[in-house]
């Protein structure tokens, strides 16, 4: 298993609290317009970020809450590697169109349907090869 960690460094005023179960993440290089609607993350090791692999069955942990990846959008891995950009989607992948930059996540055990994002929260991307 390979684990890559990032830390939440900023939360845009429009990033959380809307009806959609989606959180848009970006690296710290995001423009001001994007930062207003996104959660910004900084990877602990840029080389690990560039080599990051995400696949169905892998896990993502946001703080203490863990989730299984149930779908990986076609553009998600490349954008995550290059821009730190991905959408976490906390819903069933079978409904409607799938976001091609999305990672669809299902809670593990007693994890809440939607995690608590705070500045300083650690996000761990665990690839189970």
From TrEMBL:
SUPFAM superfamilies: PTSIIA/GutA-like. Gene3D superfamilies: Phosphotransferase system, glucitol/sorbitol-specific IIA component (2.40.33.40). InterPro entries: PTS_IIA_glucitol/sorbitol-sp, PTS_IIA_glucitol/sorbitol_sf. This is PTS glucitol/sorbitol transporter subunit IIA. It comes from Schleiferilactobacillus harbinensis.
